[in-house]
Design goal:
signal; RagB/SusD family nutrient uptake outer membrane protein; membrane; Serine Threonine Protein Phosphatase 5, Tetratricopeptide repeat
Length: 577
């Protein structure tokens, strides 16, 4: 989606001047915009709104850190080829520290999103006071989006740093994060204590309910507006939050409403397998996606950039001129080898036992033949090849030429399944060819998620047959079958066998489908936390290349960064750190 809006700097400038009195911070900046003249119009508010959206792909969020520096480490979606960062290894072992360099990036960027939302909401009140009747309707739409986005940032803050999810009705009294609704005017206003987990989720729900009212009936259809929050994004997000807080009655109401009234439908498998790579954006399955664009001016991980740098960290390895692997980008992370087996892949290894050099000339060609057959016959979950690139079977384009995917560079263990990621990767070139600013939209909330959340809700509200049907709808699409018709691949019960070999997912279709459908999409860690299966997951994955995975009950919550502990005298650290 090509939307060339870069108003983040305006939001930053306004945040500084709106949140500082003369005795708080005195910055002599001749380029600063005075609050006496900004914002005063709906156009000004739209500019600030663009900045709130842009913060979603700041470096500490989806510009780089979300996934490779956070969730994908904690839930072991990834393993590390790069062994030069001890704190990165520790995160993959579930041993994050308050001084962790990556968490120190994530925390302030999420709070920047909250503060920019608050600054916009304050600006809305100011402009509304003198707005014409014609402008007031547009202002209400801007306010609805701002409330949704504030809830969005808060959902990550409480999910990452809240002491617990609400599980079986317990945990709501534990520590969440501070609730802040205004920009601080002096240092004393930054000394805010943590609210409870329940208070945080209630605050998120309140913002979303207000957004629902303000955005009732609103859908965005023009090319420049499709990225904006509409009514079904709000309702879908509310349904998800109600599942996360185990409010099954409200979850059922909202999720059912999205399914029956939104007009959304699962896309075909052919569309599904390409929609994570910059194609088929804003399709019939998408409820809310983060708009990204290739940016040749600003690299990813920069608020001014329109793209994301996440794929630079996960870029594939391919076969070079001499037959050995070459990294297409930084290529620091690759799919944990245990994930390949979880999709049902058990066809051996592309290198025969005893191979000493990662070279295409050493590949077992019978393995390639078996793999191609498995794809055709669907004896392995087809989503494996949507999420991952298989060495010496799949390919990518490098400088206009097709290159086979190789054993992942820097993985000296030649008996390890060292595949590459496929979702959110530039398949038409390397990440360096697009300035490390990948333009693939992030499909943050889509109908398959709604279906599986609805199925989970139905298991808690006494309708297991319908729950099973919605699980099967998602599976049928994965096997390129009609979604609404019974099929040979259907699960026969909620405890039927899946493709997974492990005790966590082997006889749990709901959990397996959430894992397989969203592999590489930033969802699984939150399921691990709310289902309290972290210890079981750690036992399955056992280790990363840097060492043994060590699990403690307190690992569901991340440590509050030490910078925040030092700056806020009322901030309390999470237990275990």
């Amino acid at each position: 989606m090509k939307i060339l809006l870069k108003y983040t700097l305006i939001a930053t400038v306004l945040l500084v001047i709106a949140s500082c009195k003369d005795d708080f911070v005195n910055v002599d900046n001749p380029l600063a915009i005075s609050t006496s003249s900004y914002p005063t119009t709906v156009t000004d508010l739209e500019q600030l709104l663009a900045g709130v959206y842009a913060t979603q792909h700041a470096g500490g969020i989806f510009g780089r850190a979300m996934g490779p520096y956070s969730t994908h480490l904690w839930d072991h979606t990834t393993d590390l080829s790069w062994q030069g960062s001890p704190n990165w290894i520790q995160m993959g072992q579930n041993n994050a520290l308050p001084s962790d360099n990556f968490l120190v990036q994530i925390w302030p960027d999420l709070w920047r999103g909250v503060q920019r939302s608050n600054t916009l909401l304050a600006g809305i009140e100011r402009v509304s006071a003198t707005a014409s009747e014609a402008d007031k309707a547009n202002i209400q739409l801007i306010k609805g989006q701002a409330l949704f986005l504030r809830a969005w940032y808060y959902s990550y803050l409480v999910s990452f740093w809240g002491e617990s999810f609400i599980v079986n009705g317990a945990g709501g009294e534990k520590m969440g994060v501070p609730i802040i609704t205004t920009a601080a005017a002096d240092l004393t206003e930054t000394q805010v204590s943590r609210s409870t987990v329940k208070e945080c989720w209630d605050f998120i729900i309140s913002d979303l309910k207000s957004a629902e009212t303000l955005l009732t009936g609103k859908t965005w259809t023009s090319a420049t507006d499709k990225h904006k929050v509409g009514q079904w994004a709000v309702k879908g997000f509310l349904g998800k939050v109600y599942v996360y807080t185990e409010d099954w009655a409200n979850a059922k109401t909202y999720l059912s409403n999205v399914i029956k009234e939104s007009g959304k439908s699962l896309v075909s498998f052919e569309t599904y397998k390409t929609m994570f790579n910059g194609q088929n954006e804003f399709n019939s399955e998408s409820l809310y996606e983060l708009n990204m664009n290739v940016d040749m001016t600003y690299a990813g991980a920069n608020d001014l950039s329109m793209g994301s740098m996440m794929a630079t960290l996960a870029g594939p390895s391919y076969v070079g001129a001499t037959g050995t692997p070459i990294a297409s980008a930084w290529s620091n992370v690759f799919p944990h080898s245990k994930n390949i087996a979880r999709f049902g892949f058990n066809l051996g290894h592309y290198f025969p036992a005893g191979t000493t050099t990662a070279n295409i000339s050493n590949v077992d060609q019978s393995y390639v033949t078996k793999s191609i057959t498995a794809r055709a016959t669907k004896t392995v979950d087809p989503r494996l090849w949507v999420a991952c690139l298989q060495p010496y079977v799949d390919s990518m384009v490098v400088a206009g030429a097709k290159k086979p995917i190789s054993h992942f560079l820097d993985i000296t263990e030649l008996d390890m399944e060292a595949w590459s990621f496929r979702k959110y990767i530039n398949l038409a070139g390397t990440e360096l060819e697009i300035n490390r600013a990948n333009g693939s939209n992030i499909l943050w909330l889509r109908l398959a998620d709604i279906y599986l959340l609805y199925a989970e809700t139905l298991t808690h509200t006494g309708d297991n047959p319908t729950a099973l049907e919605y699980i099967n709808k998602v599976k049928r699409r994965a096997y390129n079958l009609p979604v609404d018709a019974p099929s040979a691949v259907d699960y026969k019960s909620l405890t039927d066998v899946t493709k997974a070999p492990d005790n966590v997912l082997k006889n749990d279709p709901l959990k397996y489908e959430r894992w397989a459908e969203f592999f590489g999409e930033f969802n699984w860690w939150f399921d691990v936390c709310r289902w309290k299966i972290g210890d079981k997951e750690a036992a399955y994955y056992q280790k990363i290349r840097g060492g043994t995975i060590q699990w403690d009950a307190t690992d569901y919550a991340q440590p509050i960064p030490i910078n925040e502990i030092n700056a806020n005298t009322n901030m309390r650290q999470n237990p275990g750190y």
